Amino acid sequence: MWARWIVPALLGLVSFVTAKSSSGNSVLVILEPKLDKDNFSKFFSGLEEKGYELTFRAPKDTKPAILEYDYAQFSHVIMFAPETKSFSSDITPQSLVSLLSKNTNLLIALSPKQTPVYTLASEFSLTLPPPGTPLISHFPQRDDPATVIPVPVRPVTPNVVSSKLAPVWFSGIPFAYQNNPLLVPILNAPAESFASDGETDSGADAVVDAADKGGEGLWAGSQMGLVAGFQPVGGARATWVGGVEMFSDEFFQKELPGGGKPGNEQFAADVAAWTFQESLVLRIDSVEHHRVNETVPGQVYTTNDQLVFSAYLSKYNPVSSAWEPFSGIQDMQLEFTMLDPHIRTALPPVRGTPGKYSVTFRAPDRHGVFKFIIDYKRKGLTHLHSSTVVPLVPPRHDGYPRFLSAAWPYYVGAISTSVGFLLFSALWLAGDDRAGSAKGKTTKTE
Amino acid sequence: MRSFLACLLPLLAIGNVYASALTLQSPRFTISASDATQLRSEPLSTTKKPSALTLGAKDVLKVTFQVVEEEGKGVQPHQTFLRFYDEVSGEEGIQPVRVTAGGKAKFELNMAKPPASLPPTTASDPLKVELIIGSFVHSPLKMDLFDLFLPASQPAPQHPDEPSFHVRSEIHHTFQPDPKLPPKFISAVFAALVLAPWVVLLGLWGFISPSVPHLLSPSILPFIATLGAFEGLLFWYWVDLKLGQVLLYGAILSIPTLIAGNQALSTMGKWRAGRK
């Protein structure tokens, strides 16, 4: 009896204490030996303080495997192996992609070197510059090499990183975004920066030639990405970072050209929070539908019924590790679809009931199998999808309006026939047999 | 020798850190039509932007300048980019400009053959054109050149799934119009017309004044009552009942009706036979 209550309570307590991400707290860090773990101590200890369990592994180690018996062993994988050309057999581009389909999140760092991971980036709609061409910027004037760049943080996708962050130090490669709405740009390059392998001013002609016809193109300007997320249909998140140094302790503390602390530490934490499904994670708890003035969902609905559709949404709160009702979406839409949407209408939040979104609408006068569909996709947010099938039938034989004024003559005719029949029956049965008695009288008199 | 190098190294280091700033010499833009007639030609200034430039569909914009050090010697910087930026749409295009070793640069924008780096444009928003000059040895230079109106281009291609990431236009179902009813007055007139034969009937009955002496007789009244109940049942069917209910109630009612009818008719037969 007690166990029934205590076990879930304890389980709830355990998850409350440890899990910070909505999808689990085990993290595998694949760290190449060239990178010193201590140089990323602030980033990693920040994750551990949040409650993540970090497991480290070199790219050529065989254990722990990322996939065992086709089952993902970790909730999140950090790939800090930007220069490793050969990985152990379980880390392949295919296995990384299959991790995403198993709701495992990836944080992947790149470098100017060509590696298997470098070539995988194009599958995520990122076009990388040719190997060996890091991002350089001569702006602003500073003492650092041109490849170490302070990048102002502009909000490309809202709410992924904190607002008003100080510029972050970056060193690595830019990438061009292909036309894919699943991409979530997080940090874009400064407008003055470009990818180049030149180290002196004499490389100027090579830059122009690259941009000319027949060259490999020019990766330049503020439309290039430095940090980009990718959210496939399953809801897992993959984040590509152009250079691993932006997570290093050195860049966390390096003073900005104008003085002041860079935003790297907060930026790295924000990027990890988004990637590990802590922030901007939504879900649909339940949906319900019924006729107006009823509360029970109908098995079937009739054409022209007034229908009420409601959805309950939650957002994950990483601070309390709990799902909380969320009413912050103003632009959600509901579709009532049979092959094509017949009705598409706004699904606004209900004031006073947190997390509830509701709309009332008149069912179309076409019968068939319809679906209530919510398909809410916005960059950076979890994609929400819900589909509920309901049959919409024409009125039953007695479901049509009666006592129409146009039919009054018919009603009157039918009723008067009935009344007439009753009256004649009564007259014939109970009436005086006058003819018979008259006949009798005459016979008597005769 | 070694001491000389030791002296030189810090000097070199200082020299490495941005020896001098770069400036532009005689920057100038020219707009000419396709038949080479000059439409507008003005020098550019670092301090004051000229009024916005407008290019027609076949016009040619030419920008020329020379990058020089402070001493007036031409240099070739590492980065000489023209940045076309649409502040409204956020679209941006970067076009590198070839600079000769003597620092001379010439950029031509022929609208008959626009370069691929040009961002998609609309007729209403100007492109902000900036010159970005970066170098490993000189201070960087960024200059606002002018605003440029270009003929509207094709919009940027859109991914087929892109609309589902934005608010989509609402869809309203077009309902069939409600069926129309004739005016109630006309219905009432025709209903009255249907009732009219009753007037004739009741009027004629007035002449013969029929009487019902046997109505309350115990053999006749039950039959008339059950017939009335049948009519009532049918009326009730019309107002409220379903077919199954009517069949059930009708079957139940038919038994007393049969009995009462048999009784009534045989009584009547006896009456008539007795009289004869």
Automatic annotation (TrEMBL), chain A:
Subcellular localization, as worded in the UniProt entry: Endoplasmic reticulum membrane; Membrane
Molecular function GO labels: transferase activity
Top-level taxonomic group: Eukaryota
Any Gene Ontology biological process: protein N-linked glycosylation via asparagine
Pathway membership, UniProt: Protein modification; protein glycosylation
Parts of the chain that traverse the membrane: 408-431
Assigned keywords, A-Z: Endoplasmic reticulum, Membrane, Signal, Transferase, Transmembrane, Transmembrane helix
InterPro entries xrefs: DDOST_48_kDa_subunit, OST48_MD, OST48_N
Family from the record: Belongs to the DDOST 48 kDa subunit family.
Name the UniProt record assigns to this protein: Dolichyl-diphosphooligosaccharide--protein glycosyltransferase subunit WBP1
Organism: Steccherinum ochraceum
From TrEMBL, chain B:
Membrane-spanning parts: 185-208, 220-239, 245-265
Keywords tagged on the record: Endoplasmic reticulum, Membrane, Signal, Transmembrane, Transmembrane helix
Residue ranges occupied by any Ribophorin II C-terminal domain in the UniProt entry: 175-272
Superkingdom: Eukaryota
Signal peptide annotation: 1-19
Principal cellular location given in the protein's record: endoplasmic reticulum
Membership in a protein family: Belongs to the SWP1 family.
This protein's name: Ribophorin II
Provenance organism: Steccherinum ochraceum
